[in-house]
Input
Amino acid sequence: MKIFGTTTINPIVFYTGKLAFVGNFAFAFLGGYVNTPEPNFWLLLANLIILFIPGLFIFVTSILQLGESLRVGLPEEETSLKTHGLYKYSRNPIYVSVYMLGLASCIYVPHWLNIALLVLAVTIHHFIIKAEEKFLLAKFKEQWVRYCKRVRRYL
Output
């Protein structure tokens, strides 16, 4: 299975967005090495229950439901429009889950660089999504239009 496809926007900006998320996630694992205020136990528990665990579940489920269509970028071979499972509720459940995990990381490690990485990643990914939608409209035409009328971009 090919994992990398064609980037939807300028490749440097595209991969900067991907690396910003990786950096954001790294903060969650390296939080003990960053000088931040001691987090409140109840805030961390709520963060775990409301954002992290559901975000992880949505991420894994979305990837499994995409199956062979999963790409970093656009597929270069034939593919089908996924509208089942979590894709019945969000056109971008993977991005929603990554946003949830990134926000969970910022709550866990409220460092200015962590927050800046999340803002950068979300901003770039919004433009990636808009470009992906142009591709999907051109590829699936009326099927895509009907899908967009039923299902929101994020939630």
About this structure: The chain has four helices and no strands.
